[in-house]
Amino acid sequence: MNSVRKSKYSMVWTIVLSIVSVLYIMPIILVLINSFKRKAYISREPFSLPNADTYAGFSNYVSGAEKIGIVSAFINSVIVTVGSVILIILCCSMCAWYITRVKSVFSKIMFYLCVFSMIVPFQMVMFTLSKVSDTLHLTNPIAIVVVYLGFGAGLSVFMFCGFAKSIPLEIEEAAMIDGCNPIQTYFQVVMPILKPTCISVAILQAMWIWNDYLLPSLILDKTKYKTIPIAIQYLKGGYGSVDMGAMMAMLIVAVVPIIIFYLICQKYIIEGVVAGAVKG
Predict the structure, then answer these.
(1) Which has the closest alpha carbon to 231: 31, 2, 71, 49?
(2) Residue 66 has what pLDDT?
(3) How much is the pTM?
(4) 122: exposed, middle or buried (Cβ count in 10 Å: 0-12, 13-18, 19+)
């Protein structure tokens, strides 16, 4: 009886979670369907599949790409995302290694400041941040990675610290006995051990940075540089008019790369988070 009851219980939960999964993915499916419709039919028949009268082919994708300058926007997004993720992984893993190995008041203060930064609302600092960024000339895709480092450091340092505590100190001591200096020890011994957490941090930060609209809109010089989320916003015309066909098509273009990246690397998220939480 217990096995039958557990089987029914599992089946119920499977059905419930399947329905929830479908509800979560439905908006993306609707955007994909409407990206192939003529503009006049998107608002009129948003839930219907394209047919002979409503099908627009790839014209929405072509017109949207031309209007927003998809190539330059894509390049800017790649520069910002890749540069920020590399800097976050490198600096935060070094910081976490220092915090876990150097037992001092300063290292404890650093750790608690990083944790505290995770609960500070962005709205509290966005106006000051915008002014400081303009003063320091951080208004281009390369310099903005420094700003993303500041906002991504809290969670990243927290995750790296949890995993770094599990690294046996004897391994590092053996490397130093063999003649490695601290930099060599970090890159040749510590960094390979931190690989699961590095991948997890990379995935989480890449998903956030690639889709971020608010921070680039405040920092970047939008007359010269636009990331994909900012460029898509310019499809809105005067008096609230929106080219819905091009908008839907460009949303798919923006979402597909990060979905592919997530699907390829999703298994490492759980491994890295569990490693950082349990081993720490």
Answers:
(1) 71
(2) 87
(3) 0.83
(4) exposed
